Hints:
Blueprint: H1 2-24, E1 47-65, E2 68-89, E3 92-111, E4 114-133, E5 138-157, E6 160-180, E7 185-201, E8 209-225
Antiparallel strand pairs: 1-2, 1-8, 2-3, 3-4, 4-5, 5-6, 6-7, 7-8
Amino acid sequence: MQKFxxxxxxxxxxxxxxxxxxxxxxxxxVDPSSNVAYGGSAYSWDGFYAGGHLGYGFGTVxxxxxGTTQQNDLRGFDGGAxxxxxxSLGGFILGGEIDGQFTNINHTQTVAGLANExxxxxxxxxxxxxxxxxxxxxxxFVTAGYAIGRGTGSYSQLGGTFSQSQTHSGWxxxxxxxxxxxxxxxxxxxxxxxxxxxxxxxxxxxxxxxANFRFGAIRLGANFHF
Length: 226
């Protein structure tokens, strides 16, 4: 619930910012064919783009083993790249985006004075649809789609520490705001909530453990438009 509330607040703030900017320019959303920005030519969101981002993730990992379920907090940074396309329909912008990022989003606990990292997310990527409104250089948007990633679990016992990685898949959804700083470069602030589903760890080496990653990520990124 906390993650969805964060997304709602971000989306609301984005629309408030854009509404204010639009009123300052004597209008609501703007058809890309009108002449209002960049010295007489309207900004166009159409076309392909690519860029990079940095972010911070927070959520939970839920694990179940031998009939016992526990939920632990996840925290950590992520960073990666994205690419996509936009297609304008009047003031509406439709498109798609793929991204991939490495992370250190994990749950770390201390056992007998030793750091132990039972579950962590190594990397993940998404393929999403996007829809937004054009306010000249501003575009608030919502997004949703498919997510896939690799998690790693570990446990310690006499004889050493054992780890295993599994591929998770699930869904993601979010909202954000993008601003065209120049005709070729835009910056964006985005929140996404991701549920990577459940996988079983340690089925051949220890007690089988079902683990599920659910987390939100706030990202700041930049795109170059072709």
